[in-house]
Specification:
By secondary structure, the protein is mainly α. The chain has a 3-stranded antiparallel sheet with strand order 1-3-2. The N terminus is likely disordered.
Length: 208
């Protein structure tokens, strides 16, 4: 291990804990990842984790790399012992496994996005159809009964409500995935092939 820099003082609280953790794991983590992994065991707050990581990076004890608005932190390889052949083989196997896991996750995201896109597209068509029908009813006089008008209004509200629910589910799922994704949201959407309502200038009808 390089002796060019002294590590944080023994018992240095969050910085010592985080430095030891990053060196032991020897892989990149976002501040959210570190907080989630260590909060229960050490009771560290997220603000303390962010501050300690930034301090360690500024002092040169760890490395920091930005991907869009998100930063990842990892151990400075020059300060770690040189890996032997056996350890390198283990690391290569771990990298391969994690790459396969990532590809499976991306494939699952693509499939889920495609399924949800089809369902949302059907809901959009239904909403548009009922909205058009509703507008015709509103502009007509003595052509439909109040019961028929109420039925169409209820159906239109139901489909719009389902559209909002599924859009919210998709947003929450993507936000959870992006929490640990090292690139920006826009890059992830482009890589997976996700198109949003905004991309097509589509908005939910105003509640009736």
């Amino acid at each position: 291990m390089s002796k060019g820099r002294e590590g944080p003082a023994a018992g240095g609280g969050a910085t010592a804990i985080l430095l030891r953790y990053l060196r032991e794991q020897n892989r990149p983590y976002s501040a959210q990842d570190v907080f989630g992994n260590l909060q229960r065991e050490h009771g560290l707050g997220k603000a303390a984790v962010v501050k300690a990581l930034e301090q360690l990076a500024q002092q040169g004890h760890i490395r920091e790399k930005a991907y869009g608005k998100q930063k990842v932190y990892f151990a400075d390889q020059e300060q770690l012992p040189a890996a032997g052949d056996a350890e390198l083989r283990v690391l290569d196997a771990d990298i391969s496994a994690r790459s396969a896991e990532l590809q499976a996750l991306l494939q699952g995201c693509r499939q889920l996005e495609a399924d949800m896109a089809r369902e949302v597209e059907e809901l959009k068509k239904d909403c548009a159809s009922y909205t058009e029908k509703l507008e015709r009813i509103k502009s007509a006089t003595n052509q439909v009964t109040p019961e028929e008008k109420e039925k169409v209004c209820s159906e239109q509200k139901l489909y719009c409500k389902e559209w909002r629910r599924r859009k919210r589910m998709a947003t929450e799922l993507l936000d959870a995935i992006l929490e640990g994704y090292p690139k920006s949201k826009k890059q992830f959407f482009e890589e997976v092939g996700i198109e949003t309502d905004e991309d097509h200038n589509v908005t939910l009808p105003t509640a009736v």
